Amino acid sequence: MTSAATPVPAEWRDFFALTKPRVMSLVVFTGLCGLLAAPGSIHPVLGFTAVLCIALGAGGAGALNQWWEADIDAGMKRTAKRPLPGGRMERTNARDFGIALSVSSVLVMGLAVNWLSAAILALSIVYYAVVYTIWLKPRTPQNIVIGGGAGAFPPLIGWVAVTGDITLMPVLLFAIIFVWTPPHFWALALFVQTDYAKVGIPMLPVVKGEAATRRQILAYSLVLFLVSLAPWWIGGTGMIYGIAAVVLSALFVVLSLPVGVRRSGEDDRMKPEKRLFGYSVLYLFALFAALVADRLILGQGLSS
Amino acid sequence: MTPEEQDAHKRARRGRNIALALVLVGFVVLFYAITIAKIGGS
């Protein structure tokens, strides 16, 4: 009898890796910011539960994503060592783990917080695991735009956990991350040699070329400038957020300009692209921190 | 199965059991806290 016939059972670390812990840090942060920036108050225990459920739901969606993409991940260097392509776990285990996490996160959110935020959480999981992963990611070069929608849900869910209804403000928070994701990811895609082409995922730089990707980065950063200021314009925030958004988003556009107009040469060091990518992460953290600071310090703003 | 493989099996299963126990205890504490919070809030 060979050892291949009796695989070692997966360790807990492999299950933990299925939840994409690094993506989760951004999910927890933006979800918490949405919760803190919302008008009204929530019991700290219930607020903690809401953020926990957002994180569990994201982890479940991440596990379902890796269950579905095990074959694709096996073909790419960056992902070949994940638990499934690495052969450390059976595929159905990842699926069941993902479903268990997703269902329990939605149920706990509904029972402990409110059912509207639970419904949006369920929608976001289905959106990421089915609409994005299964349906559109392998079919369109705009897949990152669609995937950005999944990452944009946490602040909306955090906000609705407090207020219990959907107004314009949480939808604008959704829109900010939605518009931020494409330039953030495509800047990375320009300087990291990916093997998406090999596994048949149509990433924009591969399908439409570098020039088109650069144009779209610039276009999205201009839209981001307008969208990020909208919460201030409608009176949903005070000066702290308004000034922070103007400065942060103007810098985003300034850093996108060279990326948008230049072409890379032979042995290009890709400095502007790396700078834009690094800044884009800082940008999102700073913008949402400013939103929370605005609420906590000025305490003003409409609930609409 | 060699003794070494058997040991690896046992270790992996034990680690998973401990992790699951911690998760379950965590949920018990969480539900207790939620219940108290809900009673106090109404």
Automatic annotation (TrEMBL), chain A:
PROSITE patterns: UBIA. Keywords: Cell membrane, Heme biosynthesis, Membrane, Transferase, Transmembrane, Transmembrane helix. It holds the Pfam family UbiA. It is a multi-pass membrane protein. Its EC number is 2.5.1.141. It is found in: Cell membrane. Pathway: Porphyrin-containing compound metabolism; heme O biosynthesis; heme O from protoheme: step 1/1. It catalyses: heme b + (2E,6E)-farnesyl diphosphate + H2O = Fe(II)-heme o + diphosphate. One of its GO terms (biological process) is heme O biosynthetic process. The chain crosses the membrane at residues 23-42, 48-68, 97-113, 119-136, 156-179, 217-234, 240-261, 281-298. Coiled coil: none annotated. GO terms for cellular component: plasma membrane. Belongs to the UbiA prenyltransferase family. Protoheme IX farnesyltransferase subfamily. Carbon 2 of the heme B porphyrin ring is defined according to the Fischer nomenclature. Converts heme B (protoheme IX) to heme O by substitution of the vinyl group on carbon 2 of heme B porphyrin ring with a hydroxyethyl farnesyl side group. HAMAP family: CyoE_CtaB. This is Protoheme IX farnesyltransferase. It comes from Croceibacterium soli. The gene is ctaB.
